[in-house]
Structures are given as structure tokens and as C-alpha cells.
Design a protein that fits this description.
The protein is an alpha/beta fold. 52% of the residues lie in helices and 13% in strands. The protein has eight helices and five strands; from the N terminus they run βαβαααβααβαβα. It has a five-stranded parallel beta sheet with strand order 2-3-1-4-5, with helices on both faces.
């Protein structure tokens, strides 16, 4: 069996989690975004915004979590595994805030290659903020640009998912993957 590990990317509030949940409902193997988990754990320890207060630590925790997701995805029995964000997202966010990172971040992107990348573009009509999402819509657009640039640096062909209903977005991805 030829395993496909597929990543859904996009800036904050572009519909990634909703799309992953819809894919899961249709019976696809899906892994959730792990940053909310990291953020909540930090908040329980009294750090309100770990990404803002200790961006390198936050990014290292995300990098390790996403590497573990990649390995787990490889071991799934499903032929296709969908991930809500990938390893290059970590670097894109570091670029966004202008911080440097150790070379092992770059190496992790080279060592863990995905089969397909689908991007959800910024979409003002569905944009919302919450306790884990501090960015405004303009910042979300900048993050989107950094995501595109970072994934392209690692030579990924990025497929843009049209702004449409969740069902049509799922259908678009399924048809593109021929599943």
C-alpha cells in the first residue's frame, strides 16, 4: 500500500479544523492541530500566550508534536491520513514573527515529506478570534503568505481549496486525491 500523508494548511480561521472534522465524519483518518493543546497546557501553567512569551519553546513543542504525528500517520492502516498543519508551519510562524530557529527545524522539514498540501486561503467572511487565536484578519493574511513561501521553499506543489461550503471543499480534496 502506498501511504499518502496529506496536510491541510492555511492562516488562522481559514476553516482547517472544520474541514478536518468533516473529513473525519466521512470516515477519513485525520489528525488534529496540536497547537491548541500546547497553548492550553501552557495556560494551565500560568503562561497566557506561550507563542508570544516564549516563541522558541512553543515552536519546539509544536515541532516535536508534528514529527510524532508524521510517524504515527506513517503507521496508520488507512491509505490516506490528513493532518491539520504540517512541520513547515512551525517555520512559517517563526518567519512571521521574525525569530530565528535552530537548524534542526529546517532538517525536520527535509526529513518528513508530505504527499500533498492543500491550502485554505484567508476568508474574511468566516474569520473569528477566540482565546487561543490572537491574530486579526490582516495578520492572518500575512501568516498565509509566510505559509505559502515556506512550503514552496521545500518544493511542495500547493493546491488551493476554493472558498465554498465545507461539503464542497471536502469533495474538492477527495476528487483531487482520487479517493
Amino acid at each position: 500500500m502506498n501511504k499518502k500523508i496529506v496536510v491541510i494548511i492555511g492562516g488562522p480561521s481559514s476553516g482547517k479544523t472544520t474541514l478536518i472534522e468533516a473529513l473525519k465524519v466521512k470516515g477519513h483518518c485525520c489528525y488534529p492541530e496540536i497547537s491548541r493543546e500546547v497553548i492550553k497546557e501552557a495556560q494551565e501553567q500560568g503562561i497566557e500566550q506561550l507563542f508570544l512569551e516564549k516563541p522558541l519553546l512553543f515552536s519546539e513543542l509544536l515541532l516535536e508534536g508534528r514529527k510524532k504525528q508524521f510517524v504515527s500517520a506513517q503507521n496508520e492502516t488507512s491509505a490516506i491520513v490528513f493532518l491539520d498543519r504540517g512541520i513547515p508551519d512551525v517555520l512559517a510562524y517563526m518567519h512571521y514573527i521574525g525569530d530565528a530557529y535552530p537548524s534542526f527545524f529546517d532538517q525536520a522539514c527535509k526529513d518528513h515529506k508530505y504527499n500533498a498540501i492543500f491550502v485554505l486561503p484567508p476568508w474574511k467572511d468566516i474569520y473569528i478570534s477566540d482565546s487561543e487565536r490572537y491574530e486579526n484578519y490582516e495578520q492572518a493574511q500575512l501568516i498565509h503568505a509566510h505559509l505559502m513561501e515556506t512550503y514552496q521553499k521545500y518544493e511542495y506543489s500547493i493546491i488551493e481549496v476554493p472558498k465554498d461550503t465545507v461539503e464542497k471543499r471536502v469533495d474538492f480534496i477527495v476528487k483531487r486525491l482520487a479517493i
